[in-house]
Amino acid sequence: MNYDIRDIALAERGRKRIRWAARHMPVLNQLREEFAAQQPFQGKRLAVSLHITTETAVLLSTLHAGGAEIALCASNPLSTFDDVCAALVEEGMQVYAINGEDLPTYRRHVEQVLDIDPHLVMDDGADLIVELHKRSSSGSVVAGIEETTTGVVRTRALASDKLLRFPVIAVNDTPTKHYFDNRFGTGQNTIDGILRATNTLLAGSTFVVAGYGWCGRGIAARARGMGARVIVCEINPTRALEAYFEGFQVLPMEEAAPLGDIFVTATGMKGVIRKEHILQMKDGALLANSGHFNVEIDVAALEQTAVQTQEIRDHLVEYQLPNGRNVYLLGQGRLVGQVAAEASPAALMDLSFAGQALSTYYLLCTEHRLPPGVHNVPAELDERVAQLKLKALGIRLDTLNADQLTYQASWQYGTAE
Description:
alpha/beta, globular, Rossmann fold, cytoplasm, 17 helices, single chain, 2 domains
């Protein structure tokens, strides 16, 4: 059997929701038409590990329409939509993912996806890439694509240790990804996840954001927009200054811990919120993570410290501490916008996934071959994504005239006489 999903009978519901997402993804729709006509991926096998959402389905359908054979697993045990899996199976893809699957099942699904001997791996978090490098051979793989910050960090670590066997394009680092998906998408879906899991009021609360990268910027801005007082925790001095000059209070976590009502981590680092911080928190503090892996909040220490736990709502568990206070963990400490909400809006994922689709074309369908290492998306591909999106939105730009082009290319012009 070329799939392992919860229930194939969910396919119709999945198809309906995928169609809704596709309505808001005009760039991918245009690329799908091009790929369907040209069949550039005919005979190519893609191993994919992504959050299995309706938006992801639009990306994979785009590649599948171009002739790609696709095997898909989840990049997180809790971010899978079972109806989407069923719809993709009926479309002819191999899918190995079940929402809430345990870690042994998750790892088995990763191995099943790689069993197709792919030509390219498309990853979110680098689990496919790392698993390949644990094997003696990468088989037919000629290149990879990594979609998120944590995965790029892991892949760069492989390259730094001179172990990376093939080129990997860091889609996460391209402007049309981190300016929009990371900032606006993660900002919105994090708040959405918190509200769905807790139905709490953000206005008037003290909201602590750990990390002020593009995701942290977006979360902090959305929280402030909802009326929260925002504190930022950072280790990078430049980012800390940026947060300060943008009007946020900047404190180390040990000082923010007693002040916050809601805590969100978005760093890609382990142990950002630890036992010593949790014991200082107010009664009723909410803990959420927006980083890729469930290591930013020390969940093991929280479970060992608690004298009692109970599930209060979907994706919300109460932990009673020895000091008599209660804190609440959202989504098992996994990325809250994917677990408790529906990930980034389709209009934003249109940009990120168009970048992935064009990067796939670039890697598999041209004679150009990159050396092993982590590479940026070619600037012309990223610019094409932005241009297609602007066209779809009906937005026109100014253009330079001949005199301006001459001025731009000249060194002779200086202070006007």
